[in-house]
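Worked problem 6 (solution included).
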Amino acid sequence: MTRLPDCYGIIPARYQSSRFPGKPLAEIAGRPMIWHVYEQARRCPALSAVVLATDDDRIRSAAQRYEIPVVMTRADHPSGTDRVLEAADKMNLPADAVVINIQGDEPALEPAMLAQLVQPFRKPDIQVTTLARKISAREAANPDRVKVVFSPAGTALYFSRSSIPHHRDAREDEFYGHIGLYAFRLQALKKFVALDQSPLEVAEKLEQLRLLENNIPIHVVLSELQSMGVDRPEDIAIVEQIILKKKRS
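Solution. The predicted structure is:
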């Protein structure tokens, strides 16, 4: 075991979204969604800094209004991960830094989840981490819920929208739902972004498969915690109730 490297949270946020345009600025309990994500992330003591990465002046203005640090990025990034790398480069992070891609549509994020995500980096061989939690067979049947299978050592074997593993004997088994948070050593992040899309990534529409297809291991951290992402406008009311309930408790 070694010391934990310096860890930096980067929240990629773009205005355009096919299902929910302007999602980062959607109001939740009187504040824009990006404020909630930032406030939750900065409560994690394992992070040296948290910034927002965007290409949109409307998002930048809102962030500055709420004193959220912003890094402006290009508008032509194919994914949030590419945007995260540009922001990391502009921040001049140390070569041994760990970079966390914090989804900008997770306003109910638990800060402890970020701490769980970075703890494995005390081991020098860990390159990429992500989270998973046990789910029911019913949840696993939902193609919108990404599943993961992993080795006893925690190394991801595969991610899929299908129910994995599939049991021919039709018995109940343990299923693990993937939680879409990632942490990368900076060099692993650079390598990932430089790679072309992989066949399985294209087939499943899951960019993490690009890592596995290029022999870059992903360490899966099990968590009992959960958040709820905002995919559609109708999710706002649900997430707002979750946030307000946490404030009352």
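Discussion: The two ends are 36 Å apart (CA to CA).
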